[in-house]
């Protein structure tokens, strides 16, 4: 009998649905928030881009604090699961308030956007860091965690598919011509679904990897150990470059179809097919990881994704089928990478325990979420600034310079960040053989 038996499918599914809950907001913000702020709420692209970056200063403090807090939480439900129960409701409410769209002056609107966006990201931190860290303590096995990560991201991209397929049609239907009202009603539905799914995850999962009894509790020491964890430092850059690529590209999709192709409604099919590609990529990742070294696999997938994104720079206005095909290919290749990335994060928690005698799963995943949010902020910020620099003006016929800028945001610029991701992965030191040694040593220590 295996020392680390696989998790039951119902528990994997319960865990995965937590990322479906996250993606009701994460993907909605990633795909539509920049557009909502500029074309619906009436803010300038530069102001929005600056807000995305400025608010990350706050996250630089609260993300690691949340990880440290989660690592030190003790309850009858474990360290990480309680937050899924406690934070889900405020998380849902704050996400809805972001799209409330009150009437105010330009300054008032910007202040409202700063407050609601910052509070929503704080709630996202408080629920997503424990959620992500939960994967690291559901099983001590790298193989089991990789399989769990695969299910997680199938569910995550399933949520992304719903967002991509339903947001614009629901916005038009529920708003009856009023975009602001349509977004508000749509986000209310997503909020309710998100809260319910997080509670499902809480009820259907268990924590099995307990902290060592003699662990010290110095916050300063934990932060110091994090910065000495070389594999984690490499993954920080990987996540930063990956999410900059994703945020920049996804944020440009609606603009590209509305202003470059003159067919905003066609963005729904494009985004939906992309989500299907990501689901297929995530579903196939576990099988691929059993046959190939995960690090080399992720480098190959990332380079392929970069090439497919770069090809979208060409003029496909008269060959929409080819454009959708490239999108499907890029999404399939990109869909497998977060599965591998989050299995790597769990490995770095094992590495920290093996190297330093201290397991800081919550802090490691907190720092990973900070890298994720920083990448989204950088990608969104660069997109906003770049649009303004190219002469973009909302809801009018765009100049040739603005259309070219939108096309670059849609293709070559995210491709460049994908290549940076591949370069960073060359420095990741935890091979499969090394992880087998670490797992064996940790199992012996825990038995002793």
Description:
- By secondary structure, the chain is an all-alpha fold.
- The chain has one domain: MFS general substrate transporter like domains (Growth Hormone, Chain: A, Up-down Bundle).
- Helix content is 80%, strand content 0%.
- Helix 1 packs antiparallel against helix 5, helix 5 crosses helix 13 and helix 9 runs parallel beside helix 14.
- The protein is globular, with a radius of gyration of 21 Å.
- The model has no long low-confidence stretch (mean pLDDT 89).
- Its main location: membrane.
- It holds the Pfam family MFS_2.
- Belongs to the sodium:galactoside symporter (TC 2.A.2) family.
| CATH architectural label | Up-down Bundle
CATH topology: Growth Hormone, Chain: A
Specify the biggest β-sheet: none
Globally, the shape reads globular
Instruction: Indicate the low-confidence ranges by residue numbers.
Output: none
Instruction: Count all strands and give the number.
Output: 0
SSE run: HHHHHHHHHHHHHHHHH
Taking all Cα atoms into account, the compactness measure Rg is 21 Å
SS field, number of helical segments:
17
Counting helices, strands and paired strands, the structural category is mainly alpha
Number of domains: 1
Mean of all residue-level pLDDT scores: 89
DSSP strand content: under 5%
Q: How far apart are the termini? A: 20 Å
Q: Any idea what the CATH superfamily is called?
A: MFS general substrate transporter like domains
CATH top level label: Mainly Alpha
The helical percent reads over 70%
């Amino acid at each position: 009998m295996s020392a680390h038996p696989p998790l039951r499918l119902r528990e994997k599914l319960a865990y995965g649905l937590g990322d479906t809950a996250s993606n009701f907001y994460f993907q909605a913000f990633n795909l539509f928030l920049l557009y909502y702020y500029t074309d619906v709420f009436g803010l300038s692209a530069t102001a929005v881009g600056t807000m995305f970056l400025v608010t990350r200063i706050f996250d630089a403090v609260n993300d690691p604090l949340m990880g440290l807090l989660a690592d030190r939480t003790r309850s009858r439900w474990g360290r990480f699961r309680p937050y899924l129960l406690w934070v889900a409701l405020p998380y849902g409410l704050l996400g809805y308030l972001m799209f409330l769209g009150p009437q105010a002056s330009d300054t008032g609107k910007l202040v409202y956007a700063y407050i609601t966006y910052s509070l929503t990201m704080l709630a996202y931190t408080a629920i997503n860091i424990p959620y992500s860290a939960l994967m690291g303590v559901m099983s001590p096995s790298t193989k089991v965690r990789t399989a769990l990560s695969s299910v997680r991201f199938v569910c995550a991209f399933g949520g992304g598919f719903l967002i991509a397929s339903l947001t614009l049609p629901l916005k038009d239907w529920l708003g009856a011509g009023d975009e602001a009202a349509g977004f508000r009603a749509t986000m209310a539905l997503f909020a309710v679904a998100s809260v319910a799914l997080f509670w499902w995850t809480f009820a259907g999962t268990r924590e099995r990897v307990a902290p060592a009894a003699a662990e010290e509790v110095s916050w300063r020491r934990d932060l110091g150990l994090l910065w000495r964890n070389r594999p984690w430092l490499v993954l920080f850059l990987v996540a930063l470059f990956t999410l900059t690529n994703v945020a920049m590209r996804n944020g440009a999709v609606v603009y590209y179809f509305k202003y470059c192709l003159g067919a905003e409604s066609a963005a729904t099919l494009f985004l939906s097919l992309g989500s299907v590609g990501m689901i297929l990529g995530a579903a196939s990742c576990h099988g691929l990881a059993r046959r190939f070294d995960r690090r080399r696999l992720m480098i190959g997938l990332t380079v392929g994704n970069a090439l497919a994104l770069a090809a979208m720079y060409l003029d496909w206005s008269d060959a929409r089928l080819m454009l959708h095909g490239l999108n499907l290919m890029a999404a399939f290749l990109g869909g497998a990478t977060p599965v591998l990335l989050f299995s790597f994060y769990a490995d770095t928690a094992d590495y920290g325990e093996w190297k330093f005698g201290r397991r800081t799963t919550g802090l490691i995943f907190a720092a990973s979420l900070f890298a994720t949010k920083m990448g989204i902020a950088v990608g969104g910020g660069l997109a906003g600034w770049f649009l303004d620099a190219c002469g973009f003006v909302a809801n009018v016929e765009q100049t040739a310079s603005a259309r070219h800028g939108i096309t670059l945001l849609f293709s070559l610029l995210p491709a460049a960040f994908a290549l940076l991701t591949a370069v960073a992965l060359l420095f990741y030191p935890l091979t499969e053989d090394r992880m087998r040694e670490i797992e064996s040593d940790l199992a012996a220590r825990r038995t002793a």
